[in-house]
Amino acid sequence: MVAKGNYGYAKGLKRKRMLLMLVCFAFILADVLISLIFFQTKKTLFVVLACIMAIPFAKNLIGYLMLIRYEPLTPEEHEEAIRLEEKRGTSFAYDVSITDTEGVLFYPCVAVYNNNVIGLRQAGQSERKKDSVTYLKKVQEGPPTKPRVVVVDSLKDLGRELDRLNPPKEDQIHADLLIAERLMELGF
User: Fold this and answer.
1) Cα–Cα distance for residue pair 36/47, rounded to 1 Å
2) Which of 105, 99, 83 shows the shortest CA–CA distance to 158?
3) Do the beta carbons of residue 143 and residue 178 sit within 8 Å?
């Protein structure tokens, strides 16, 4: 499985949720069928086990349904993001999700650079940019410094934002790592 923050993480997580959901469903179905075929009743321990297996089935079903709307960067966009990383000497976090009681927002690519968090908004996800920025500002609750948060609509805009920034100093590099850690804690 791809590590969190790397390109392909969401796709792997979606595949994992689907596989676990299917395994749980097969187990539930097998338990109920065994009870009905061999014992001709639903009042067996097999049905109780099937009911218990409904909990992880539901958890994985919900996790899968939450990930359906997410669309990662295309391979061409990923190549462009890699070129931006190499140009600025930084690394991006990919497939970032931020959860809230209201729902989930996905960011295909997020750059943490010189006390700035620049997130690439998924096309068509939240029509109001203000909502996307509000979600991403949750990263400010963790580290001691409050980074500037910007949400952009394209990789070109992300590159322009990075070009406007000065290279970070040594102490800022460590603070950026703390911000990136906090960013990975906000989603699933």
Assistant:
1) 9
2) 83
3) yes
